[in-house]
Amino acid sequence: MITLDHHPSGRHFLQIPGPSPVPDRILRAMSLPTIDHRGPEFAALGLKVIDGLKRVFRTRHPVAIYPASGTGAWEAALANTMSPGDAVLMFETGHFATLWQKMALRLGLQPEFLSVPGTDAATGLPTGWRRGVQADLIEERLRADTAHRIKAVCVVHNETSTGVTSDIAAVRRAIDAAGHPALLMVDTISGLACADYRHDEWGVDVSISGSQKGLMLPPGISFNALSPKALEASKAAKLPRSFWAWDEIVEMNRGGYWPYTPNTNLLVGLSEALDMLLEQGLDAVFARHQRWAEGVRAAVRAWGLPIQCADASVVSPVLTGVITPQGVDADALRRLIHERFDLSLGTGLGKVKGRMFRIGHLGDSNDLTLVATLAGVEMGLKLAGVALAGSGVQAAMAEFAARPAPRPLRAAA
Ligand code: PLP
Asked: What's the confidence (pLDDT) of residue 5?
């Protein structure tokens, strides 16, 4: 047996859909000495990152920051607003929606899990895992709930397990059309700072996100963006909470501090990330991800493989799910590509395990990183004996060359 105890030359290709590659500028910022989290310098940092996050969530209301992964922020959203036995309406778009639903059960809520039934004939995969939230089904269910037992509608904005987004404004319209008072809670853990997101305009009550995706940070901090209606609901909610409780956090955040020790250095990194995103402008950030996604999808189409998202109107700008032919184990393919080319791809999760892999196109990336990534995938597919219709690398190169980035990456000489 050969032990790989050396550090391979060149950079590892971390092309999973989060944690995303962290820009050097952020890594350097995080390496500064840790500061006193009760001192004056920290208050300035705290106020700055909260203000910057509000701009990224597009909200005027409080954003709570937790020293926790995204799962913690899911729990915070439910624990702050719900009472034991409350009904919540959730929508099965993939593995993360499923995990959130399981959490609701464990917290003593009564989740109702709407889904699109059936299996796709061509791929054998669950139909609902290839599509986004169907707002009409939500509206229909809410109209039937005349007693208003349902206290919240919970949906995932960018389903990281499938590469499918959902139209959050349409979900808001569905709730309003049904005249239902339920809160709207949205997981935008992998959508924020990659895809357009508007907490206030879309009438979201709790938006949940995390550091390790579009914000280009390591994992470890997560967020709840709130609405006045969510804050009001938290006053009556009876689920037990202490660490997650919004009231103390929101109160202490007014001065730039936290009720406990925050992740000081990650917040320094967040400050840097926000500077980078806001300097570029969010619209430019979204356009960059769209462009990358189009290049990657051009490659998958050229290979002749199905894209996990079956509805072109909701394909994700963050990642692309690629379905392997029947009989080709997607995880064995991923292992081969990792061993041979030092490239990490996302695994298929839950119901699609072994049948698909995910290419992340977020974080510190560019056209050439993605072309190299696609070259690694193409070589791996050939080594695994998959018959390809054509070259995905050529198709991606053609796509990137035909559609230059809106702004030159470097100034002309
Ligand atoms: N929701 C979505 C959409 C995710 O992509 C993830 C993680 O990838 C989670 C929730 C869970 O977050 P975490 O793993 O940071 O706890």
From this structure: 62
